[in-house]
Write the structure tokens for this entry.
Amino acid sequence: MKVLVFGQLTDITGSDTLEVAEAPDTGRLLEQLKQRFPALETAAFLLAVDQQVIENLTALSPDSVAALLPPFSGG
Amino acid sequence: MKVLVFGQLTDITGSDTLEVAEAPDTGRLLEQLKQRFPALETAAFLLAVDQQVIENLTALSPDSVAALLPPFSGG
Amino acid sequence: MKKKRNLFVQGPIASAFIGERIHQHQSRTEIGAHSIFLGQVRSDRVGDRAVRAIAYTAYEEMAEEKMHEIREAAFATYHLTCMHVYHSLGVVPAGEICLFVFTSAPHRKAAIAACEEIVERIKAELPVWGKELLEGDEYQWKINS
Amino acid sequence: MKKKRNLFVQGPIASAFIGERIHQHQSRTEIGAHSIFLGQVRSDRVGDRAVRAIAYTAYEEMAEEKMHEIREAAFATYHLTCMHVYHSLGVVPAGEICLFVFTSAPHRKAAIAACEEIVERIKAELPVWGKELLEGDEYQWKINS
């Protein structure tokens, strides 16, 4: 599945789009990402799925698009 | 002495500059003006002398410039 | 010495003038935020007639003095880089701009709060009067809320 | 159907564009007040280097969705005639404008309060990021206060 990466988090991932193995839910997705990029463990960010910020454990489908959103700094 | 008249009060005085007899203080000046223009009795306005709004009885000199200021409506 | 600030403008304030004034502040790279208020003559209905224009008059010397006082207070209260105010005199047709308040600051909160406070003080404290000219030859005196 | 609103602009927002947008609202004679907020790229010092520009990126679809939500909330809360928001993407040099929020209403209080609230929500809720480009080839990520 696809994970979009924005802002300062691209300094950690080195890319603004990641292809990762399918994950059944957001918990497992985050585990996988933190294993691959340990610096995410201490980074501040929100997880969005299909443009909605996710606060609770949420099931994912293979065509979900996840996004890692560091603190916003527009304006 | 000179009395400047602004805004809706010019509808009462018919002019934006009045020449009136010298008055020793603001109380006597107002008396004189209300005698000449009775509609001032019920009109809302502030009295300014030399561009300062006057709230208490204040002495006038012959070269004081008084002004009658109805409620402001700028902007 | 008090700097003469050209508070009053004859007739409407042109939108192109506003664009230019903004442009002139772009060399000041310590500015992070501008707040602008524009008063526009509204074509209110008065009975069966619409306001077609407002004719503004002022006690000019007193207004400039008061504006100076408002300006000093704004700079004392807020961390501002610049502040400009223009008010129309004479006839301003409906749809045209009669008041332009422009504050600039390093940070947005100062620019926004100062602009709002200045607008309120202008409405309440500047000796300026608006005569609403209606269709036909009638008029009524504007009342600020 | 949701109207596409062209939230994003490539590069800086020109002051002449702002003047034109003001001008376009002068045919709406029910408007009595406009409130405008402009964000300008500030040349802060970072150590011994100055910020020479900010490069903006966004999660565009999500930002447009969120802006739509902010717009609906503003119209539901305030008696507004119009509301327009433009945000830069890409590189905006110091001194140039990166955010333009423009509210219009019959009365000033609605225009002013809505503009301020929209600016705060944009800063806090829009998925947009600023990368401050310093003199030399260094950068740091912008942090909103």
